[in-house]
Amino acid sequence: VTDLLSFYTHRPILSKADILACFIQAQPTAFNDIIQKQLANMSDAQTFIALTKKEVQKNNLNPKELFWFLRLALMGKTAGPAIASLIEMLGIPESKVRISASLDLLGKIK
Length: 110
Fold this sequence. Notes:
The protein is 69% helix and 0% strand. The chain is mainly alpha-helical.
């Protein structure tokens, strides 16, 4: 149980390889602007997820890749609880910090 909840007290330490593993069909940078835009306006978890997913689909990107990336950013794993639940558990401020850190790493991938 302790390992399952370690993400709550420890921010994930990610590498470029971790980030790249989330993206199968699309270039990782294709998600960067979409997530950045929605992150800036995040006021609640459900709205953030719904709007981000909608933008991803509108740009013909795979929502699964979005969810893998966000889950990785929030907890360091690509499988786990729903993204909205993770954001609610961590809180908006901490979620923004973790997602922003992963986006910074994503931005360094060419």
